[in-house]
Write the structure tokens for this entry.
Amino acid sequence: MIPTSISVDPAIGTTIVLAQAPAEPHGAEHMASTPGEHGAAFPPFDASTYASQLIWLALTFGALYFIVSKFALPRLANIVEGRAERIEGDLAEARRLRAESKAAGEAYEKAQADARARANAIAAEARDAVAKQAEENRKTLDAELAAKLEAAEAQIAATKQAALGNVRGIATEAAAAIVERLTGAAPAPAEIEQAVDASLAR
Amino acid sequence: MAGAIDPIHQFAITPVLGPVTNSAVFMILAVAGVSALLLIGSRERALVPGRLQSLAELSYEFVRGMIHQTAGKHGMVFFPLVFSLFMFVLFCNLLGLIPGSFTVTSHIIVTFALALLVILTVIGYGFAKHGLGFLKLFVPHGVPGYILPLVVAIEVISFLSRPISLSVRLFANMLAGHITLKVFAGFVTMLSAALGGVGLVLGILPLLLTIGITALEFLVAFLQAYVFALLTCMYLNDALHPGH
């Protein structure tokens, strides 16, 4: 039997149990400090184990804190922050490339617009030149035609003059012949010419 | 055979080798497990993490997010402490779920020591950072003068009860969970021992229940580690910003 009478002080109780354990038939099963089976000390409230637990806790938790703060967290921070930086860098690079391609696209469109404008200018110029040439051609042609028309008019006038001159000679001769037949005497040529001119002038 | 199932026996502290007790063995295992996960997981430093690295990073970002949310940017001073506490408690809780193992956190002295570590850190850092201004923690703003003594008394009591509630919550959850598991698992063998074949069939019921409770205990193991770390963050936030 376990000496429950002394278990008022758990520490003493345990030492006594430990000392008596071999003599007890069931001692091996109960393993040292199990007065809890008899309701004396529930293991979590058995103060005799506190010192050992606290020492082990201090040792192990201290070691864990050391490992965590000196090795684990810096390494993990390195990995996580490194990845964040890497991703941020990649994103920045992607943004830069996008801006670059956008600028290139704009430059291309600008070049295209310039080329189109230049082509339009050249076409307009050519059109203007052709129109100007045509105008010039038309003008020279007009001038030529006008000159020809003038020449023809002059010739007509000359011919008319010549014809009018011939009419006077014929009229004079006819008048002289008529007067000679009527009067039997040939009139003076000067009188005839005077008379003809007078009637022509009328 | 009868009476062989003692749901309390699993909590007994027994020497394994010299001064090394079963509790010490599981504390060492927990620290070794956490260290192995973190150090092996962070060994390759891969841009695209493998399984172990993912787990290590997940725990890192989980605890970091927790501190950021509760204590803000300045709370990162306590990152190693909160991280160590969370991982230690989590691994102790989870290792305790292995059948036949020992649960370090089912002992009030361990959880109380951890809670005391948190509260002493709060007090020490609070006074070091704010001097007597840390006492503003106990004097909320906008309280009329005539009820101020009462409010201050309540605040002081609530502050002093924190280490107790923090430690008892974890301890009691672990203890109760393991006792429940042991009792229901014990029913299986007791039924078959007492009733033979019929008991074997009837034993299926507590067996199913044991499976369900085991799943629940895994949740509790994680949840209690999370709650412990979260409350630690909130208490540490008081040390950082005592003016509410």
Observations:
- The two ends of chain B are 59 Å apart (CA to CA).
- The first helix of chain B runs from residue 22 to 41.
- The longest strand of chain B covers residues 15-17.
- The mean pLDDT of chain B is 90.
